[in-house]
Amino acid sequence: MAGASHYTLPLPRFDKPVKLLVVVAPYYRDIADDLIKGVRGVLDEVGAAHELIEVPGALEVPTAIGQAFRMSNFDGYVALGCVIRGETTHYETVCNDSSRAITLLGLQGACVGNGILTVETHEQAAVRADPKAQNKGGGAAAAALHLIALARRWGGVARDVGFRPQGDETQYAQAQDRGIRA
Questions:
Q1: pLDDT band for position 161 (cuts 50, 70, 90)
Q2: Is 56 within the bounds of a domain?
């Protein structure tokens, strides 16, 4: 629907410092740079610290976030990249698999804002990445910040999402004692 307006939630405010990991696949460097500018603008607005890392492609973004989620101490994550439709089914594979992996990380408790653009043309990507236009990088940062605010609000004990075989309670308890998500 042309001309439709979109509501944007006000950014959350934090009493304690917030640190995010921004993971970008810079395959289209100009698009990645604009996405990063958008992220930094939003994070600066709330006084959040961040670290930026680059990975080869969109499929590696959720893997890097998953590693950091398990092995580091970030409050949240921003996934950035751009996938432009080509002549093969590779587009669908990259779009679907990166999105699914990011969703699964979120269901495991990672506070992830997804800023991986999936577009038909470079021109569409440029408009979406531009901090003065659609600012999808800033939107991904805002999404991560809102999830961090919810996680801090609810605070309680993290629970695993998934299934474990019946009768595996001893092995599961030992894994939990070692801090491993089973």
A1: low
A2: yes
Whether residue 182 lies inside any domain: the answer is: no
SS (H, E, C) the chain: CCCCCCCCCCCCCCCCCCEEEEEECCCCHHHHHHHHHHHHHHHHHHCCEEEEEECCCCCHHHHHHHHHHHHCCCCEEEEEEEEECCCCCHHHHHHHHHHHHHHHHHHCCCCEEEEEEEECCHHHHHHHHCCCCCCHHHHHHHHHHHHHHHHHHHCCCCCCCCCCCCCCHHHHHHHHHCCCCC
- pLDDT at position 134, please? 97
Structural domain total, the chain: 1
Q: What is d(CA 155, CA 151) in angstroms, rounded to the nearest whole number?
A: 6
- What pLDDT is stored for residue 180 in this prediction? 46
Q: What is the pLDDT of residues 114-147, one digit of tens each?
A: 999 999 999 999 999 999 999 999 999 999 999 9
CATH of the domain at 130: 3.40.50.960
The model's pLDDT over 12-45, given as tens digits with 9 standing for 90+, comes to 999 999 999 999 999 999 999 999 999 999 999 9
Cβ neighbours of residue 54 closer than 8 Å, sequence gap 6 or more: 23, 24, 25, 26
Are the C-beta atoms of 53 and 23 separated by less than 8 Å? yes
**Where in the sequence numbering do the catalytic residues fall?**
90
